[in-house]
Amino acid sequence: xxxxPSMPSGHSRPSTxxxxxxxxxxxxxxxxxxxxxxxxxxxxxxxxxxxxxxxTAVSGVVQTIVAPLRLAGAGILAPFAGMSNVMRNxxxxxKTLTELIEENERLQARNVELEEAExxxxxxxxxxxxxxxxxLQSSAAHVIAGATDSWxxxxxxxxxxxxxxxxxxxVTDSSGAVGQIxxxxxxxxxxxxxxxxxxSVAAMIQSTRAQGMLEGTPDAAMRLxxxxxDQTVNVGDIVVTSGLGGVFPKGLPLxxxxxxxxxxxxxxxxxxxxxFARIDNLEEVLVITSLxxxxxxxxxDIEQSDAADMEAASGEVEKVEESSKSNEVEEDTETxxxxxxxxxxxKKDEEDEEIEGxxxxxxxxxxxxx
Length: 370
Prior knowledge:
Elements: H1 16-48, H2 54-90, H3 94-134, E1 137-145, E2 154-157, E3 170-173, E4 176-184, E5 189-193, E6 200-205, E7 211-216, E8 222-225, E9 238-241, E10 253-261, E11 270-275, E12 284-290, H4 299-358, H5 362-369
Antiparallel strand pairs: 1-2, 1-12, 2-5, 3-4, 3-12, 4-5, 6-7, 6-9, 7-8, 8-11, 9-10, 10-11
């Protein structure tokens, strides 16, 4: 038998485990290469699909299946991420913590600034909406101060004659009329509010067109005067400017009726009005600088107002005449009663005299006997 060649000295025969590891390593590299090629091919086909091919459908199905697992994994890992942040904060040095605190303060201040800017922008937008709705020729102003005493209801604006403002101009906020300018300097203006006791604005009930005067009161309320009791007024009715007097534009909102009282025999209602405007916390306002033609009262409005005044005056005259006649009747009745009483008294005196002449007392009779 032939003999096998002997192995060189110093070299050992490779073991079976080493050969398996070598073959396995080669197989893994080949598998990875195949997967990469397949991925490239699939990506190419997926990019080429425009209207949703089979690969897109398969991808959607896979994403639908995997989505719950992904959410579950995120929920499981969230506490660990939070703990990681806590541990990082606990192990942070003093400088890092100081920087974080300062950054948090800056962000809070910025948040407050942005919220305030949003509120101001919303108020200005509301003013622009009102100006657009009523076609107001106006200029915006900011309230910088309230009343300086407890006897008047006024505010001060940050604009004056240098901005074209003059005494008498009406002022409104986004909800409706608020007052009228009563004093001006170059840079400021003083506005008397509707709730001031000296305030008076021509107004009317929007639904019935019943006209009167909206006046302030000492208790900072508003009263609608000169609305006759033969006209219809209900709680909740809207009160607007009538335009009479040529100061306020016609139809500008003033408030709504909150109380209606009717005293027996009275010619006019006692009406309390709740203002629409935020009288107590005004910030941004519009000063109406001029009136357009449609905002002014017409001759027909003036005639109706005069007719209403004449009717009210006529009613007052009739009441005075009725009262005078009633007083005359009462006086006549009193005179007649007095005459009757006097006659009765005289007759009684005569009867008393007759009785006294006929009556003789026992004492007088004895005197005559003696």
